[in-house]
Structure formats: C-alpha cells, structure tokens
C-alpha cells in the first residue's frame, strides 16, 4: 500500500501475553492522520489508546498489520532503522514532561538535537526559534523547577518539534494542569500542528477541547470506531 499521509495504521492488531493466554490491546485498528490534522483519541480506560500511540510511535511492534510513517512501512525495519526513523520523523509528548533537572529550557532542546548529529550552532538557533513559538523566549535560561507546569509542558512540546517531525504523538498533555493552562496547551498543539504541518494524534479525556481538533477517533475494547469530524 502506498500513502503520502504522515501516519497510516492498517489493520493493526497488538496482543500482549497474559498468563497462559493473550490480551488483545488493539484489534485490527486502521487510522490515517494527514499533515496539519489534529486527531483526538478518546475512549474509556483500558480501551487501547496508549497502545495505539505506542504502536504508532514504533515503540511496540504490532502482532500484525502495518504502521506506515511518511510512506515507509515500518514493519519490515530492524531496530536500528526504526530508531533512526523515529528520531527523524516522530515527536512524542508524554503526560509528564520528563525534563532533565539540571538543564535549562534551551539546553533541553539543544541536547535532543545532539542525538541527531546536528551542529551545536544549528541546534541552538532552532531551539531559540521553537522557544519563541511556544512563548518561552524569556524563560530560555530557566531550569525545570523554575518553570510552571504549563511552561514545562511547553518546553516538552518545543523539544518534540526539534527534529522537524512529520508525526506528533501526544499522551494526555493536560493531565497535570488546571483548566486555563490545559486550554492554552491544546491551543498551542492546534497552532503547531498547522504551522509545522505535522499529523498530530492526541489522547485526551478532556472532551471539551474536541472542537479544537479536526477528527475524533474513539477506542472501545481495542477497536477503533469510525473516526468522525470534530463537531459533527
Ligand atoms: N505491557 C502490557 N502487558 C499486558 N497487557 C497490557 C500491557 N499494556 C497494556 N495492556 C492491556 O492492554 C489493554 C489496553 O491498554 P491501554 O493502556 O492501551 O489502554 P488505555 O486506553 O490507554 O487506558 P488508560 O486510559 O487507562 O491509560 C488493557 O487491557 C491493558 O490491561
């Protein structure tokens, strides 16, 4: 199958060993996320949302099906090739911004680019640009404990964008934030999805923010119901 969408899942099934048997976390899930599209992934606890993100991030290998990232079917790739593809194409934003406590905001971003073999000069320029996008230019020199929870999540988002990913995978970005900060984080994800033309899939419990997304995909018992347009 050929596709130009940044992210396509085709009939993805993921089974975990469970005692003598198996638990089916994903049951023939198909999903496409286009460039500039923000997809909300909702559903009850245990329905498979984190498993879908992990499969899309190529952090777990599905039992069957295809995970296609920017036209590359990842199922045939070895571990090294997968790591390279992930570094180049996928940004991952976890619930808790796992920032390094001794590094300033700008250093958190620069160090992530070292792993990609970029020069320190280019990385520093890119980091400054992205901190400006997320509204943190004035806090570039601050350590994580000197930042608010919302600001730490902004650093996390900027860091995920350092490698110019095609796909952004976001797990409950507002879980630790109050209402006002949650709204501004979702608005920022909306903005960067458009500005950088990434395909963003975001797990959320906050259905009130669904109007800011393009598509709502609902998981139930490992199955994805047909994605619908937000507001439809
Ligand atoms: N590493 C694992 N080993 C065995 N079973 C697992 C593993 N990870 C998840 N599961 C099972 O897979 C199913 C889907 O779990 P998953 O974490 O994807 O759900 P979720 O929708 O993200 O839940 P929540 O909203 O509570 O985070 C559940 O039945 C869970 O118990």
Alpha-carbon Rg, integer? 17 Å
Hetero compounds: adenosine-5'-triphosphate
Strand content: 25-35%
Query: Which CATH architecture of the domain at 7-99 and 164-229?
Result: 3-Layer(aba) Sandwich
Distance between the termini: 29 Å
Q: Number of helix segments?
A: 6
* Class by SSE composition: alpha/beta
- Using the coordinates shown, work out and report the CATH topology of the domain at 7-99 and 164-229: Rossmann fold
Order of helices and strands: EEEHEEHEHHHEHEEEE
Q: Quick check: average pLDDT? A: 92
What features would you describe in this structure?
This protein has 232 residues and is α/β, with parallel strands linked by helices. It has a domain at 7-99 and 164-229: P-loop containing nucleotide triphosphate hydrolases (Rossmann fold, 3-Layer(aba) Sandwich). It is built from six helices and eleven strands. The strands form two sheets. Strands 3, 6, 7, 8, 9, 10 and 11 form a seven-stranded mixed β-sheet that branches. The two termini are 29 Å apart. The site of adenosine-5'-triphosphate has 13 residues, from strand 1, strand 2 and helix 1.
């Amino acid at each position: 199958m050929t596709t130009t969408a940044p992210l396509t899942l085709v009939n993805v099934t993921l089974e975990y060993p469970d005692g003598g048997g198996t638990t089916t976390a994903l049951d023939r899930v198909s999903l496409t996320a286009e460039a500039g599209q923000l997809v909300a992934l909702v559903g009850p606890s245990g329905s498979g949302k984190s498993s879908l993100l992990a499969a899309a991030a190529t952090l777990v290998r599905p039992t069957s099906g295809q995970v296609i990232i920017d036209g590359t079917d990842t199922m045939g790739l070895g571990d090294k090739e997968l790591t390279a593809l992930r570094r180049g194409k996928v940004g991952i934003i976890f619930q808790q911004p796992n920032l390094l406590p001794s590094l300033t905001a700008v250093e958190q971003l620069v160090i992530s680019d070292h792993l990609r073999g970029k020069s320190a000069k280019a990385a520093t320029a890119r980091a400054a640009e992205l901190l400006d996008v997320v509204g943190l230019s004035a806090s570039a020199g601050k350590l994580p404990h000197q930042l608010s929870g919302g600001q730490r999540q902004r650093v996390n988002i900027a860091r995920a964008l350092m490698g110019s990913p095609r796909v952004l995978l976001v797990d409950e970005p507002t879980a630790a934030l109050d209402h006002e900060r949650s709204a501004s984080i979702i608005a920022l994800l909306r903005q960067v999805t458009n500005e950088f033309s990434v395909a963003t899939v975001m797990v959320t419990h906050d259905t009130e923010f669904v109007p800011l997304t393009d598509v709502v995909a609902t998981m139930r018992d490992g199955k994805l119901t047909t994605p619908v347009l937000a507001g439809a």
